[in-house]
Write a structure and sequence with these properties.
Blueprint: H1 2-12, E1 23-26, E2 29-33, E3 37-44, E4 50-54, E5 60-62, E6 66-72, E7 80-86, E8 90-100, E9 105-110, E10 117-118, E11 123-132, E12 138-144, E13 147-153, E14 162-170, E15 180-187, E16 199-201, E17 205-206, E18 209-210, E19 215-218, E20 222-225, E21 230-236, E22 242-246, E23 252-255, E24 259-264, E25 275-280, E26 283-288, E27 291-294, E28 299-304, E29 311-312, E30 317-326, E31 332-338, E32 341-347, E33 356-364, E34 374-381, E35 393-395, E36 399-400, E37 403-409, E38 432-435, E39 439-444, E40 449-451, E41 463-471, E42 474-482, E43 486-491, E44 495-499, E45 509-513, E46 517-522, E47 525-526, E48 539-547, E49 550-566, E50 572-576, E51 581-584, E52 587-590, E53 594-599, E54 602-604, E55 612-615, E56 623-631, E57 634-645, H2 651-678
Parallel strand pairs: 2-8, 10-18, 20-27, 29-37, 44-49, 50-57
Antiparallel strand pairs: 1-3, 3-6, 4-5, 4-7, 7-8, 9-11, 11-14, 12-13, 12-15, 15-16, 15-17, 19-21, 21-24, 22-23, 22-25, 25-26, 28-30, 30-33, 31-32, 31-34, 34-35, 34-36, 37-38, 39-40, 39-41, 41-42, 43-45, 46-47, 46-48, 48-49, 49-52, 51-55, 53-54, 53-56, 56-57
C-alpha cells in the first residue's frame, strides 16, 4: 500500500489539466456552514482499470466508479482534490468549496446625527454587519416598513469572516414621520446552498421628522439631466414679511408674493442646493429643494478578464462591464443578463455626484449548455418617481461565449436501417454532442474492426456496434444493436410433390426482416395453413411474402401423389352372341397406375398399361370381368358384368327335333320285329336318306 501511495503521488505530479480529467463530483459544489458536516462523492465513468484517491487520504479504491469523502468544515480555505490513475491518463480535479458563516449581529444607526430630522434635509443611515463569510455572497437589503428601498452587493473575494457596512441616504418629508427603517444581511449561496438563503435582520430604526416651516415646495424634489432646464415653486398660505430663493444659479430676490419660482434654463452645477426661505413671526425658516443632476454613461462595454478565446466547461471566468462617465453613481445599477435572463446586479454606495467611471464584474462557471450564450450588461439610473420614466439606461453589445467540452452521447437507441443504408445516416447523430464538434468512428463488436462511416449495410451486417465520439478534450462511447432490415425474398422450386391427405411442407425459403408474413394461394383463393391436399388438388400455386419493406410472389406446380381412382364408366353390358365388346377401365393415379384384367380369377394377358379390353365374337364370354389398377400408393378393382343374348326359337325344328327321334325309335322297333319274323335288316345311320333291308335271296 505504501508503494502504491508513492506511485500515486509521483503520477499526480505529471497529471493532466483538470479540463481533460474524467472526474465528476456529486454534488458539483459543496456549500457548508462553518464547523458543519459535509459529504461528497468523487466518481469516474471509465471502462479501463483505474484508481481513485482523495489527496492526503489513505482511502484508495481500485476499479470502482465512486469514492466518498465526509467531514466537518473547520477550514475557511477548504479544498478537496480527487485523483485518478489509469493506463491512459493520470489527472486530478478540485472540488469547489464554499464555507459560510452568518453574521454575529446586524444593526442600523444614523451617521453624525442624533434626534429628530428636519423635513427636506438629507441624512445618512448605516447598517453594520459583523463577522460574515464569504462577503462576495453577501447582500444587504434596506427596507422602509415592508418596502425594499435599496440593496448593496459586495464583490470582495475575502473568504474569512469580515465586518461590512452599507449606507443609505434619505431625505425625509412629513409623511416619513414615525417611519421604521431596517436592514437585512442575506447570504446568496446558489443552488447548492441552503434551501432558504441564511439572513439576519436588524432592529428597526424609527425616525421623527420636524416640519415647522410654513412653506410648500412643488415639486418637493427635482431630477434634471445635466445642462437641462429645471424649475420649482415655493408657496405659502401664511402672512409673511418676505420670501425668496437662495441658489448659486437662478436665485430669486425676496418678495412679498405668496408664490415664487426658481428657474434655470441650463443647469450645469453638480452641487447646487437651492432653498426657499420665509420671514414670519419675527423669524426665518428655510426648506431645501433636493436636486439630483444625472448624466447617462458615455458608453457601456463588456469583456472577459485575462482571457481570450473559447472557455472550458466547469472552469471559472470573470466578465467585466465598464460604464464610462455616469452620474450620480449612487443611483447607478448595473444589471447582468444571460440572454434575456437577469443573472446579477451591482449597486454602488459612492456619494460622488459628478460623473465617474465604474466597473462591475461577474464570475461565471460555464457548462455545455452555455455554449453560444450571450452575456450583456446594462447601466440603469434609478432616479425615483421624480426622475425620467422609464429610467434611463445604456446597454453593451452582447458578448457571445464559446464553451469547449468533452463529447457526450446523450442517447443511442438501437437502430433498424434497411440494406444500402450507410453508417453516417444514423438518425440519432444529434445526440452526439461535444465542442469542438466530435469526430465519429464505428467499430463492429463481433470482429472488433474499425469501420468507415460511409459503409453500406447488407443483409448480413446485423450486429452489435460501438460508436465513439471524440475531440481533443475526451471521448464517449456507446453500444448499439443494429438490425439490418430488408424486403422479403423467396427461393422456391418450380414444382413440389406431396402425398394426398398429408401435410404439405414447402421447402420454399422465405427470407426478410422483419420476418415476412407468408400467404398461400391456388387460383387466386387463399388457402388456410396447415394444408392437407386432396388427390385432385394438383395444379398451379402461388406463395406471397410481405413485410413493411415490400412484397414478393413465387408460383410453382404442386403434384398430389395418390392411389388409383376409378372414374365413372359403363360397367354392365348385355350383347348378342358373336358381338364385339369393348370394356374401358377409366383409372387415374400419380404415379400412373399399372392396369391388369382378370376373368373368372384368371389373368387376361393385355399388357401393363391397357385400360381397354376388347372381346371379339362373344359366345361363352358372359360373366364378370375385373379391372385391377395399382401404384406405389395403393390399388383398386372395378368390375364389369357381361351378358349374352341367344337367337329366336324355330318351333318347326324343335318339333322335328323332338318327333324325329320318336319316329326313328318306332321304326327300329318295327324293323326289329319284322326282321325277326321275315328276315334280317341292317340299320344305317340316321343321317342316311333311306333304310334298305338285307338281301337274303328272296323277295318280299
Amino acid at each position: 500500500m505504501l508503494l502504491l501511495q508513492r506511485l500515486i503521488g509521483l503520477l499526480l505530479m505529471i497529471s493532466f489539466v483538470h479540463s481533460d480529467c474524467p472526474i465528476s463530483f456529486i454534488p458539483t459544489e459543496v456549500v457548508v456552514q462553518y464547523e458543519a458536516s459535509f459529504s461528497v462523492n468523487c466518481y469516474a465513468n471509465m471502462t479501463d482499470d483505474f484508481v481513485l484517491n482523495w489527496e492526503g487520504s489513505n482511502d484508495t479504491l481500485e476499479n470502482t466508479g465512486e469514492i466518498s469523502k465526509s467531514g466537518n468544515a473547520t477550514n475557511w480555505e477548504m479544498q478537496l482534490t480527487c485523483h485518478i490513475i489509469s493506463n491512459e491518463s493520470q489527472c486530478s480535479q478540485n472540488l469547489s468549496f464554499i464555507v459560510y458563516k452568518t453574521p454575529d449581529s446586524v444593526s442600523i444607526s444614523t451617521v453624525n446625527h442624533n434626534g429628530p430630522m428636519m423635513e427636506g434635509n438629507q441624512y445618512e443611515l448605516q447598517c453594520d454587519v459583523l463577522n460574515v463569510a464569504p462577503v462576495q455572497n453577501l447582500t444587504v437589503n434596506w427596507y422602509k416598513g415592508q418596502t425594499l428601498v435599496n440593496k448593496t452587493i459586495f464583490t470582495d473575494t475575502i473568504i474569512t469572516p469580515v465586518s461590512k457596512t452599507s449606507k443609505l441616504q434619505i431625505r425625509p418629508d412629513r409623511a416619513d414621520d414615525g417611519a421604521q427603517y431596517w436592514c437585512e444581511a442575506k447570504l446568496e449561496l446558489g443552488e447548492e446552498g441552503a434551501r432558504a438563503p441564511p439572513k439576519v435582520t436588524s432592529d428597526p430604526l424609527s425616525i421623527t421628522v420636524y416640519y415647522d416651516c410654513p412653506i410648500q415646495l412643488n415639486p418637493q424634489r427635482v431630477v434634471v439631466k445635466y445642462d437641462g432646464p429645471v424649475s420649482a415653486d415655493c408657496k405659502t398660505y401664511v402672512p409673511h414679511t418676505g420670501m425668496g430663493w437662495e441658489a448659486s444659479e437662478g436665485a430669486v430676490p425676496m418678495s412679498k408674493d405668496s408664490l415664487i419660482t426658481w428657474r434655470v434654463s441650463n443647469l450645469t452645477e453638480w452641487d447646487i442646493e437651492p432653498y426657499c426661505y420665509i420671514n414670519y413671526n419675527k423669524k426665518q425658516c428655510t426648506v431645501t429643494l433636493p436636486v439630483t443632476i444625472y448624466k447617462t454613461p458615455d458608453s457601456v462595454s463588456i469583456s472577459t478578464v485575462n482571457h481570450n478565446g473559447p472557455m472550458m466547461e466547469r472552469n471559472q471566468y470573470e466578465l467585466q462591464c465598464d460604464v464610462l462617465k455616469v452620474a450620480p453613481v449612487q443611483n447607478l445599477t448595473v444589471n447582468w443578463y444571460k440572454g434575456q435572463t437577469l443573472v446579477n446586479q451591482t449597486f454602488f454606495t459612492d456619494t460622488i455626484i459628478t460623473p465617474v467611471s465604474k466597473t462591475s464584474k461577474l464570475q461565471i462557471r460555464p457548462d455545455r449548455a452555455d455554449d453560444g450564450a450571450q452575456y450583456w450588461c446594462e447601466a440603469k439610473l434609478e432616479l425615483g418617481e421624480e426622475g425620467a420614466q422609464p429610467p434611463p439606461k445604456v446597454t453593451s453589445d452582447p458578448l457571445r461565449i464559446t464553451v469547449y467540452y468533452e463529447p457526450e452521447i446523450t442517447n443511442c437507441p438501437d437502430w433498424s436501417p434497411t440494406t444500402g443504408t450507410s453508417l453516417d445516416s444514423y438518425p440519432n447523430s444529434y445526440s452526439l454532442v461535444g465542442n469542438p464538434h466530435p469526430d465519429i468512428s464505428w467499430r463492429r463488436k463481433s470482429s472488433l474492426v474499425q469501420l468507415n462511416v460511409s459503409i453500406l449495410f447488407n443483409t448480413y451486417d446485423s450486429d452489435q456496434y460501438e460508436i465513439t465520439a471524440s475531440n481533443e478534450h475526451g471521448k464517449s462511447t456507446c453500444i448499439i444493436n443494429i438490425t439490418v432490415e430488408y424486403p422479403p425474398k423467396l427461393n422456391c422450386s418450380g414444382s413440389y410433390e406431396v402425398k394426398e391427405k398429408t401435410l404439405f411442407q414447402h421447402r420454399c425459403e422465405d427470407n426478410g426482416l422483419p420476418k415476412p408474413d407468408v400467404s398461400f394461394y391456388k387460383d387466386g383463393k387463399l388457402i388456410e395453413l396447415p394444408y392437407y391436399p386432396k388427390w385432385n388438388d394438383s395444379g398451379l400455386y402461388q406463395f406471397t411474402a410481405i413485410n413493411k419493406h415490400g412484397t414478393v410472389n413465387s408460383t410453382f406446380n404442386l403434384t398430389i401423389l395418390h392411389a388409383p381412382v376409378f372414374h365413372a364408366s359403363q360397367d354392365k353390358f348385355v350383347v348378342d352372341e358373336d358381338s364385339d365388346i369393348t370394356l374401358e377401365c377409366n383409372s387415374t393415379g400419380i404415379p400412373e397406375p399399372q392396369i391388369s384384367w382378370s376373368f373368372k380369377n384368371e389373368i387376361i394377358p393385355t399388357g401393363r398399361r391397357h385400360n381397354i379390353l376388347n372381346i371379339k365374337a362373344a359366345t361363352s364370354t358372359a360373366g364378370v370381368y375385373t379391372c385391377h389398377a395399382m401404384n406405389q400408393f395403393g390399388h383398386g378393382d372395378k368390375t364389369f358384368k357381361v351378358e349374352i343374348r341367344g337367337k329366336s326359337p324355330n318351333y318347326i325344328l324343335i318339333v322335328i327335333a323332338v318327333v324325329a327321334p320318336l319316329i326313328f325309335i318306332a321304326l327300329l322297333i318295327y324293323l326289329w320285329i319284322n326282321n325277326k319274323s321275315t328276315g334280317s335288316y341292317q340299320v344305317q345311320p340316321a343321317n342316311q336318306r333311306e333304310m334298305l333291308p338285307l338281301n337274303n335271296g328272296g323277295k318280299c
